Amino acid sequence: MPAIRVLIGTALWCALESIWSTGSLWWTSLSYTQSPHNLAILHLGQLSGPSAVTAAVVAVNGLIAEAFIAGRRKKEEGSSATDCVADVTDVTDGMKKEEGFSASLKVKRKKKGEGRWKKWVAYILPAGLFLVLHIVGWSLYNRPLIQEAGTGLKIGIIQGNIPNEIKFDSGGWRRALEGYTAGYKELADRKVDAVLLPETALPFIWTNEYQRSTLSFYQAILQRGVLAWVGGFGQEGDSMTNSLLAIDKTGEIVSRYDKLKLVPLGEYIPFYEILGGIINRLSPLDTHLVPGNSKQWFNTPFGHAIVGICYDSAFAEVFRYQAANGGEFILTASNNAHYKPPMLAQHHALDVMRAIETDRWAAIATNTGYSAFVNPRGETIWKSGINTYEVRDATIYRRQTRTLYVRWGDWLTPLLLVLAGLMWLIARN
Is 199 designated active site? Predict the structure, then answer.
């Protein structure tokens, strides 16, 4: 049965994506092909995360493929049916010509009617499913975006535009300090509630009191007193973390999020427990990056925030967990300076999906683009240019809603697997 084959294929595809997403090299879910432009279908993510969007894409395209296969098979059967009718006519010598003609005509009409019905069903099913899925998604998209009084936050973003080639040079360091300090002062004068900087915007360990006290950015915080969320490094024993640090008006760290999903080979060495001794002897570095705790919190004076640093954005569960545990808005900090424009667009598409799935406003700060503000509908309120220095502020809102996905996670994939297994057993018997 075509419908059963499509069900099994959809379930297996979602299961494979679910397994793959638990690893270190996860990026290209089929669901991302719909982001950020098909907002109606993306809202299916509020039901069961990326798997709901993936299932929709696979099911519709699977039914289209079945319709194509059925049409081609009908042509092949049509030519063989003509030969069969000729053979039957030769065998029935005792029948009258009129009776033979009438019988063959009835057979042809019956097959033609069945073929026409199968053809219509084959094309109606994918078109009908396509329409139903978009209606469901559109109804979720069109729900009123109600904001409670007193939940607004005026957030400032600084896109530093520091190429990776000079990021750790003295010239790049001075440029970063000047740009981020000037941007912070400008945003403080605009009366923002907090300022968000990109991933590793100030690449040093903030707990080094002598080093931070010499920074113009640090002095600006003491003078203006506006909360700053700064991308930098944290200390974890003999290792470092890629962190987003909340710096209050006293210059102290009041909260910290450590990047959970490190990039293999770029930020950590796979199988370090086994190869660590060899790597330490070969490497001139005394420390290495370690991932953050999967159960961490990021507190702010405005409530819990959902935080992702760069590669974290590809993992929906990282954001779902924080939303389920009280996260009211999203902050993401990234450094995409080593990527070309198509990759920047893909990264933005990930952040759009995370905002929709959790039903949260998002402030996105990157080093070279795309920085952005995104609302819970997935609409990009503002997006930066590429390789530009930008200072921008916008009002986002705290939300405490809980989508079905935030409550239950990916419940659709196990359900599809169970249904596919039952249908396979029924068809087999």
Answer: yes
**What does DSSP assign to residue 367?**
S
- Can you spell out the DSSP letters for 214-267? T-HHHHHHHHH--EEEEEEEEEETTEEEEEEEEE-TTS-EEEEEE-SSPPBTTT
Residue 84 annotated as catalytic: no
Residue the block writes with tokens 């070309």: 340
Question: Tens digit of pLDDT for each residue in 249-301?
Answer: 999 999 999 999 998 867 766 655 555 554 444 443 444 788 999 999 899 99
pTM reported for the whole predicted model? 0.86
* Candidates 66, 310, 328, 357; catalytic one: 310
pLDDT digits (tens, 9 = 90+) for 341-390: 999 999 999 999 999 999 999 999 999 999 999 999 999 999 999 999 99
From the candidates 17, 66, 199, 328, which is the catalytic residue? 199
Name the catalytic one among 167, 259, 261, 357. Answer: 259
Contact 294, 260 (CB under 8 A): yes
